[in-house]
Structure formats: C-alpha cells, structure tokens
Design brief:
The protein has a single domain, classed as Pseudouridine synthase (2-Layer Sandwich), CATH 3.30.2350. The chain is about 20% helix and about 30% strand. It has 5 helices and 10 strands; from the N terminus they run E-E-H-E-E-H-E-E-E-E-H-H-E-E-H. Strands 1, 2, 3, 4, 5, 6, 7, 8, 9 and 10 form a 10-stranded mixed beta sheet that branches. The chain starts with a strand and ends with a helix. The model has no long low-confidence stretch (mean pLDDT about 95).
C-alpha cells in the first residue's frame, strides 16, 4: 500500500497479479487497469463519487502515467512518439493510440555465458497518452524494439535467453499523477522497481 484515505487507495501492484485480485484485497473499486505481467502504481476508488471522478480523468486523458521498460536494441533517436493504431482482438476495429518515449540509458551484455552477449538494450521511459489494451507492448513491437521477456510480443527465438536475464516482463508503472477527486489537489505517487527488475538491470546494464 502506497497511500490510503477515505476516498481512494494507491497500491504497488506486483507482477503476476490481475487487477481484480487487487480490488478484492483492498475492497476498493477499479478505475483503470494494468496488465497481469506489469507491476507498479495504480489507484482504486473507495466510493462511487471517487470512482466517477477518477474514471473521468482517465477517459479525458488528464492523468499522467510513466512506465519503465527495457527493450531490445539501441534506439536511433533519444526520444520519439509512436502513433500506430492498435486493436484489442484481431477482428476488432483499429483504435488510435499514442505513446511518447525517451531513452533513459543504453546497455549491452558482457556475460559470455549468455547467447545474447554483446546484444544492445535500451531503458525507456514511456508515457502513454491513450489507454489501449497492451498498447505499450504492441507499440514497441511495431517499431522493432519489443520489451525484454515479453512472451506475447517479444522475439520468440530469444525468449528463453530473455528469461535467463529477466524472469518476467520488464515493464513497470513507476509514476501516476492525477487530481484528487475530493480535495481537488494535484497528487502524484511513485513505485520503485521491484527487486527482480533491479537485479535484471544490474545484470544487463551493470548497475
């Protein structure tokens, strides 16, 4: 638990937990979602008024969200914008999607016991301006830089080596900023990288 008051709860969701379990454990109401494999900060409402206020902010894109992701390859630019439309299922209609990204650091593996030794990686900060299902994962795949240890959108031939370096999807919701639905105050919350991602960062980036 990162924060709690009479209107809302802010938690640091672990990877592997579905958001419905988070709602059950806190007794609060979902207003947005994180993928099961994604860790990080999320807010839940404790009453209908808070739910309506928070949900409206997400729908109107008035919430600031920042993620950390380790991706395959070296980015050619230091920052950019991905606007490839995405769809939830193959037969669904394409929907507009916007993801802003910037490079935090560039890494390469020197461990000769791993087949990917010498392979380049980039640590990115991602700011989604829309909230489509698997948007970040799909967007990064679309530009040829899938997230490390992504079992769905990653490089299939490299997934076993990925999992040796990082046991789970390297995607973490690190920052969430919104207007408190009752006080009207602009608030923000942060969640540190979980231990398994810290270890993966040290193994790949040497720090």
């Amino acid at each position: 638990m990162l924060y709690e008051d009479e209107s809302l709860v802010v938690v640091d969701k672990p990877s592997g937990m579905v958001v419905d379990e988070v709602a059950d454990q806190t007794g609060a109401i979902l207003v947005h979602r994180l993928d099961k494999d994604t860790s990080g900060v999320m807010v839940l409402a404790k009453n209908d008024l808070a739910q309506q206020g928070l949900k409206k902010q997400f729908e109107e894109r008035k919430v600031t969200k920042k993620y950390l992701a380790l991706v395959h390859g070296e980015m050619k630019e230091d920052q950019g914008l991905i606007t490839t439309p995405v769809q939830r299922y193959p037969k669904d209609q394409l929907r507009s999607a916007i993801t802003e990204w910037k490079v935090i650091k560039k890494c390469s593996i020197s461990n000769l016991h791993v087949r990917q030794a010498g392979f380049q990686y980039s640590m990115l900060e991602l700011s989604p301006h829309t909230g489509r299902t698997h948007q970040l994962r799909k967007h990064l795949k679309s530009i040829g830089h899938p997230i490390v240890s992504d079992p769905i959108y990653g490089f299939r031939k490299k997934i076993k080596d990925d999992l040796k370096l990082c046991p789970r999807l390297f995607l973490h919701a690190k920052y969430l900023e919104f207007t408190h639905p009752v006080s009207g105050e602009r608030v923000h919350f942060e969640a540190d990288l979980p231990l398994e991602l810290q270890k993966a960062t040290k193994s790949i980036c040497g720090e």
